[in-house]
Design a protein that fits this description.
Blueprint lengths: L1 H6 L16 H13 L16 H15 L4 H12 L11 H27 L11 H12 L1
Helix pairs in contact: 2-3, 3-4
Amino acid sequence: MLFLSFLTPLPALAVNPDEVLSNPVLEQRARNLSAQLRCMVCQNQSIDDSNAELARDLRVLVRERLTNGDTDQQVIDYVVSRYGEFVLLKPRFSARTVILWATPVLLLVIGAIAIFVFIRTRPSGRAVAALTAEEQARIEELLKK
């Protein structure tokens, strides 16, 4: 088990020792912010977990902004202004995200209504009444022409 535990990747090792801030409060803030930002190379990892060069650059940028006195929100806003909303692992609540999340539900409702209307308006499987002798004679007359 000990050998297998050495084979598992450790996300904490993604942060290089030269990146760690001497102030533990700022370092914790940096780690919290890094966990919220997406690695643009790996895409499903935070920059805190990623070993990509871009993730390292973003970790350094976050730490620089914090040491310059920026608040957490200012750091997030700065990174979003440079890389777009996609850099956030948890997107902000906005009109775009509401549309994004509401569209599948809306399509399900529209589909359910369409199925309901289709079932209600389709012809029933009842037997059709037989033609009268008069109608049959008229059809035969038309076919002979």
